[in-house]
Each structure stands twice: as C-alpha cells, then as structure tokens.
Amino acid sequence: xxxxxxxxxxxxxxxxxxxxxxxxxxxxxxxxxxxxxxxxxxxxxxxxxxxxxxxxxxxxxxxxxxxxxxxxxxxxxxxxxxxxxxxxxxxxxxxxxxxxxxxxxxxxxxxxxxxxxxxxxxxxxxxxxxxxxxxxxxxxxxxxxxxxxxxxxxxxxxxxxxxxxxxxxxxxxxxxxxxxxxxxxxxxxxxxxxxxxxxxxxxxxxxxxxxxxxxxxxxxxxxxxxxxxxxxxxxxxxxxxxxxxxxxxxxxxxxxxxxxxxxxxxxxxxxxxxxxxxxxxxxxxxxxxxxxxxxxxxx
Length: 299
What we know:
Layout: E1 7-10, H1 24-31, H2 43-49, E2 58-61, H3 74-83, E3 87-92, H4 99-107, E4 114-118, H5 135-145, E5 150-155, H6 165-175, E6 179-182, H7 206-213, H8 223-226, E7 231-233, E8 239-240, H9 255-258, H10 270-275, H11 278-287, H12 290-295
Helix pairs in contact: 4-5
C-alpha cells in the first residue's frame, strides 16, 4: 500500500464561519457545546510525518468539520505541496476572503490544481443551507481562481433549490467555472427533513439500511483500498485511513481513537503507521467496521 499511495486527504482546520444545518461541525457543537475546541493542523508535524516522495500525488484539502481557507498556514502548506510536485483539490464555501488573499493563494497553484466552491443554490437562496455565507466575497474568489486553476461549482440538491439547478449551471458558465457538479447527499434527519429533496436527488439510502443491519451479511467496497488516496490527517494531528473514521459518530469506538497515541503524527511517520496497519487493510472486507458499512456499502 505504501508504494502505491495516490494521495492524501488533509483537514487543515476545524474552523468555519458557516453554520450549515447538516454539517458534522454544527451537529457536534449542538450535541456537545462544552466539548468543542477550535484546532489548526501543525504543519511542521505534517511535513515530518509524510516521509514519501510526493510527485504526482493528490492532496484533497477538505475535512469533516472545517473550511481550509481559514487555516492560518494555508499558503505555506500549498507552497510545500507544489514544491514537491503534487496537485491540490481545495474544497471551500469561499466566504470572507479578499481579492489579495485569493491572488496570493493562486500564485502558488497551476492548471493541475482545483478549487471547489460549495454553493447550494443561486445567490438569492443558497444561504438557506450555507448559513452565514456571503455571495459578494465568494464571487471575488471565483473571479480570481477561474483565471488560474480549475474551478468547480459543487451543488447539493435540497428541497429549496432543486428548481434552480439549471439557473445555477448557467451562471457557473457565465462566471467561467470549469465544471458544474451535482453532489447528492445522504445527510438527512429522516424522511420528514424539511431540507430533503425528492428521492431522485438524494444519495442511495443503502448506507443507512446497511448500517441498521450492521454486520448481517452485507458486503463493503472500501474506498481506502480501492483508490489508495483516502489517507486522512485530522486538524488535531491524527492519522486515519479515511475521513469517515474520525467523524464523531464513529471515531470513539474505533482502534484509531483507542490507540490514538500511535496515530499521532507528531510521534510517528506515515511509513511506520502503514507498516503496522496492514492487518486493518487486509481484513477490512471480513471485519466490516461500522463506519465502512455506513459509508462504503457494496451497491
């Protein structure tokens, strides 16, 4: 696995200015308000941890809880990634940054890189979900990034925005986006969720069904093994095979939390971690951890 790694998924920070209702960050703060702590990834630890050549590797800058544009060392991280020959896919809502900030970010990036803007609707209604987002500053970011990197408009269908998909796609073309992408979600509070769209606009319910059945004869298709580009680093500085494991709905029951000192990137290296997690990857189809049943069912 070590020699065939395709990429990494880095949660640079858990900080975000938005309060999206179905976001893991919002849910955690609502459930455990006294337990929340803002975090920024230690970049020096990350650089020491990833001890393999990075040429042609892919870095997904996203995460379970935060928006990477609020990472205080983002420019340094981007510069390091690019100097080592890797590409960047940065996922953001894009709010509250200046033209100068976007210009400095894209100065280090090129045509191999991509910025994905999460805009679920049109300017008049997307804040129904992206609460606290700001279209004017997002547009500033779009105007800069479309000149330098691939730029994607990512659109999650909700009940309030399904009639605006064509209008949003047309606007994306006018603004110079490389791609308009529909991202179907499975994060719903039951069938009566006021945000939930028609069935044709939602991700398959198979993951919830499999999760409810737990280990009852279901099979999984683990993305971590298939793509080998899911290696995840949390903003707190811990390794996991994918971003699903550190989600608070699953994390505290996994070996990656119970043995978290071993997966602390300040105390080890990627090579050491993967040499000692072969059993996990080799047996995953048999053990079928709960988070795999939920997120990676074989359809």
